[in-house]
Amino acid sequence: MTSSPEPTQPTDESDETPVALESESRDGEPATAVPVASVAAPDGEPATAVASPDGEPAAAEPATAVVPPPARPDEGDDRARTTVLEAPPAHRHAAGHELSGGAGEDEARPAVVVEALGVRTPRHWVFRGVHAQLAPRSVAAVVGAAGSGRTSLLLTLAGRMRVTAGSVTLGERRIAAGTRGAALRGYRSRVAVALIGGHVGLDPELTLRHNVRDAADWARVDRHRALDHVEQWWERLDFSFDPHARVSELPALEQRAAHLVLATFGAPELVVIDDVTADLQVDDRRRIWEIAREVASSGPVVVAATLDELTLGADTVIRLSRDQPRHAAHPDQSDPPDGAHADQPQAAPDGGPQDPPPTRRQSIRETPEEPQP
């Protein structure tokens, strides 16, 4: 598994200009959210757009803070490990697993609520004013060019980047500016970061089995059950299961699928993955969205960032753009539903930092250290 410890605090040293998200109209009032929203930040002004299945964005709240990673369990002590694994959809009953929750009122409530979320450096907004309501077991796509703030948004949703404004609610847990200690650790324990390029991910030089063992240790899941879990998923996805193959030797689609599947160890409520379609052929890009959908159907909300405009299977699209705002009620539609609108974003300072570069490798489940103020 790979990653680096400090992708948590935006800096001002960058050649790219992140596009901040915006959900405010020119007169300062928040724009109405639609099931799929798109946004723009002309000339570097912060812009946001998000989707909300039914309802308007709530008022802004403060946001999150970051704490050091939890202690890693002793590799020789299986008693410290849980066995929380959700079987792939076709194998749930055969494997003795059931999906958590059920149909009804709980399914109707959003699993993730983002309210006026924003991150700012000492000089610039990385993004701001993000509103979203993500349904249980849904897939959300974050689309934008390099430097548009996609990675920063994912890290913020995961509780790995300090938030300047707004809040994120995940089930019964909520983080906002100044959230620290047990509250922040509790939130982060329910989120899995599947892939953040150069920061978090599988170790390509290790075998699939070794990566599974590492991920199982960090999620406190029994190693043998974890390997069986991955084999079931490979059967479900019609992949040839070779646990002794190095990850770098696997086809690109299988590598990306492995990141998603291993992130489900511990039954998180939210999984985030960056560059989900990078280096994939067109057919494989379609397939990875199908796989994301299958992973979401097993329990967690999946939020995937991509440079690609092809977002088949996404229930919600968050579009980061420098162009004029566009609206859509669904990824396949271009017009908003009656009454939905997004106004021109307000002006903001030009420029801004790109996401911080990686500094070292770490486990997929390890969390970055808290940056110094």
From TrEMBL:
The keyword Cell cycle does not apply. The keyword ATP-binding applies. Pfam families: ABC_tran. Residues 1-11 have a biased composition (Polar residues). Residues 72-81, 324-341, 363-373 have a biased composition (Basic and acidic residues). Transmembrane segments: none annotated. Residues 112-347 form the ABC transporter domain. InterPro entries: ABC_transporter-like_ATP-bd, ABC_transpr_LolD-like, P-loop_NTPase. One of its GO terms (cellular component) is plasma membrane. GO terms for molecular function: ATP binding; ATP hydrolysis activity; transmembrane transporter activity. Keywords: ATP-binding, Nucleotide-binding. SUPFAM superfamilies: P-loop containing nucleoside triphosphate hydrolases (SSF52540). Residues 30-42, 51-66, 342-353 have a biased composition (Low complexity). Residues 1-107, 324-373 are annotated as: Disordered. Belongs to the ABC transporter superfamily. PANTHER family: IMPORT ATP-BINDING PROTEIN, LIPOPROTEIN-RELEASING SYSTEM ATP-BINDING PROTEIN LOLD. This is ATP-binding cassette domain-containing protein. It comes from Miniimonas arenae. The lineage of its organism: Bacteria, Bacillati, Actinomycetota, Actinomycetes, Micrococcales.
